Amino acid sequence: MAQARPAGASWANYENIMKLQAAHFIDAQRLWERHMHMAKYGATPAGGVDRQALSAEDIQAQKVLLGWGSELELVPARDAAGNLFLRLPGLEPGAAPVMTGSHMDSQPTGGKFDGIYGVLAGLEALQAIRAAGIVPRRSIELVAWMNEEGSRFAPGMMGSSVFSGSSTLDSILSIKDSRGISVQEGLEKVQAAFPLVPLWPLQRPVHAYVEAHIEQGPILESESYSIGVVSGIQGKRTFSVSLQGEEAHAGTSRRCDRKDALMAALQVVQALSALCNDDQDIVKFTVGRFQVKPNAPSVVPSLVEFSIDLRHPDSSVLQSLGDQVELLCAQNAGPCKATVRELSNAISLQFPQSMRTLISEVAQTQSISCMDILSSAGHDARYMHPICASGMIFIPCAGGISHNEAESANASDMANGAKVLVETLLQLAA
Ligand code: GLV
Ligand code: MN
Ligand code: MN
Question: Would you say the CB of residue 211 lies under 6 angstroms from ligand 1?
Fold first, then answer.
């Protein structure tokens, strides 16, 4: 039911009353407890989370989310890219919705907050809107994007890139995980688990997108701010490199005859690392995955495959560094054959000023401290940015630690993020 305007109240005042009512219903304890509950699906012995995209743990977590959504009478839906939606219907069902959310998958040694915070803060926002009895003009949808991390299937942000039309569904279906299971097989499992949840089309119009996330860095905590208004996301290119050599006996083969893929890989990585080693520590170069075959103590390695994650806030620097990767690999591979495959190339982006201003005004109205901040990590908001007004809200995380089982955040910052989120969503959906 739409709320009636109180007699005598101006629309401006009425909107303010509505906003405050919604923020008032954000429940820090419930938000915290939901994080602890979700962390059970994929819990690691060291207190972290390993919840890979389209895995059994992911399906369990989605079931729980659907259950919470059903208690709030949210309308569930999926799409062909494995994204999950929960809609709070607005007064004008035909109007493009406002969306909020993030991802539920994690790194193999991930924490309890990366991604899932944006999903649960979004759910908390919808619950607060329900509790306040508000029906916005536009529908507001919570989304859990498929495979943001890219740790099971590379590259990451698959669900949001297909939803937004930056990639095609066909281009992701045949991508396989390290056990040879394809995205298509994973999607079929998820679809079989939720036969009653209707399939909505990809590339639906969206009015605006706001993603809440932990900062994953140390700035907000060290500067004592509760909220970061994200100005943009730094650019990132990812590659997969393979060095093909030849197996040989570790005791009998002569050095001059060897095609040792590991020795070649070490030279290549050293050359790339030297290229990316800037005095200001702005270039971020990471080889996070490194696989040696046959990985036997007495066999000269025949194949090494490794990943490159390269980031820089200046797109021209990022392009120039990334463009040198293939040549450097070839030049340093010795007797082995280097093959370089670029998996993704995303330039730096800036969120619209109007969205940033809205988020900071909403924070200031509630006396929640905020500062502008650039996101050094990647997020699904990157792919929503080209199709609708997008923005992000950061909250601090302890010690800036993330992609680590020790990742943590505090309940009052988490609630502040949800308070800013709910008011921002309501303004966008008005
Ligand atoms: C996202 O998880 C990233 O690695 O930036
Ligand atoms: Mn994330
Ligand atoms: Mn992450």
Answer: no
